[in-house]
Amino acid sequence: MKSLIFGALGQDGKFLSEELLRMGNEVFGFVRSGSETKVPNGIEGVTYIAGNLLDKSFVEQTIDKYNPDYIYNLASFSSVKNSFDFPDLSEQINFIFVEMLLEIIRERRDRNMRPIRLFQASSSEMFGPNPKGPLNENSEMNPQSPYAIHKYKAHKSAIRFREEYELPVYTAILFNHESHLRKPTFASRKITQGAFQIALGKRDYLSLGNIDSLRDWGYAGDFTKAMIMIVESATPDDYVVATGELHSLRDICKIAFTESGLGNYEEYVILDQNLVRHFDTSGLVGDSTKINEVLGWKSTMAFEEMIRLMLHQEKKNTDH
């Protein structure tokens, strides 16, 4: 089987590539222009294609050339904060590209070409602040940030193309999922990297915003396995992927600083009000009953184990 991944160099793209290769899939990764065909930090065994994500003709030619069985759209302008500063870019990547991709798949079907199954990665940010949880596939959505609004519009488009044109389009509403492959701009990785660097004497403190902000955090490796299960299932549908547990940034700090041998995190963490998110979706917790019961997926890695694994990888990266 052949899989084409958009957003192949992100955290999820790398985990997904490795898992698909293990399964014997031929994997193609679409990367943005400026990247070389042999990209640094890419996954060995993946064929990377560099191009403009918004060039419909090039994207269409790429799909026709490699003729994938599955397309995973993980491409995302994923910073909620930056989406306020660059709303047009967020809209182009998070919504306009998705509509274009859906249209390409519909046009191929209309030309009697082999149907392609499309996986669209949606976001729990679509539920907005202060929701009543746990949240499932039918919960009301109230997106507030440009990022959340654009992901919501893409999510609704995916459902519309599935229902109106009977296309094999699958979506997953993904709650927060982390790993050592996260960029340090994400709070979880910022903390584990910061704690490790403080332990090495490379820095003295770590600045954070609201450390009591709550998230439903899972392990990225578990979530990418859910993506594969979803897109390989018989009936196109929507699924919430989450752990159903809430933890705070304070919890991450406690584990990370203790595991780093530093002890009490309060001696090293400075609270900076400038880092507090204005549209914080604290407290979003997911209900994954549907994917648990229909597909048999479950989150396997515990929260504390995930943070310890991230710290172990920080050390491993330094050793190399």
Detailed description of the structure:
With 320 residues, the protein is α/β, with parallel strands linked by helices. The chain has two domains: 200 residues, NAD(P)-binding Rossmann-like Domain (Rossmann fold, 3-Layer(aba) Sandwich), CATH 3.40.50.720; 94 residues, UDP-galactose 4-epimerase, domain 1 (Alpha-Beta Complex), CATH 3.90.25.10. Helices cover 41% and strands 16% of the residues. The strands form four sheets. Strands 3-2-1-4-5-6-11 form a seven-stranded parallel beta sheet, with helices on both faces. A two-stranded parallel ribbon has the order 7-10. Strands 8-13 form a two-stranded parallel ribbon. Helix 1 links the parallel strand 1 and strand 2. Helix 1 crosses helix 7. The protein is globular. The model has no long low-confidence stretch (mean pLDDT 93).
The helix count comes to 10
In CATH, what is the homologous superfamily of the largest domain? Answer: NAD(P)-binding Rossmann-like Domain
| Portion of residues within helices | 40-55%
* pLDDT averaged over residues: 93
**What is the spatial order of strands in the main beta sheet?**
3-2-1-4-5-6-11
Report the uncertain regions. none
Supply the number of structural domains: 2
Total DSSP E strands: 13
Note the gap between the termini: 34 Å
Given this structure, which CATH class of the largest domain is correct?
A: Alpha Beta
CATH T-level topology of the largest domain: Rossmann fold
Order of helices and strands: EHEEHEHHEHEEHEEEHEEHEHH
Q: Give the percentage of residues in beta strands.
A: 15-25%
Give the second-level CATH assignment, the architecture of the largest domain: 3-Layer(aba) Sandwich
How large, in whole angstroms, is the Cα Rg?
A: 20 Å
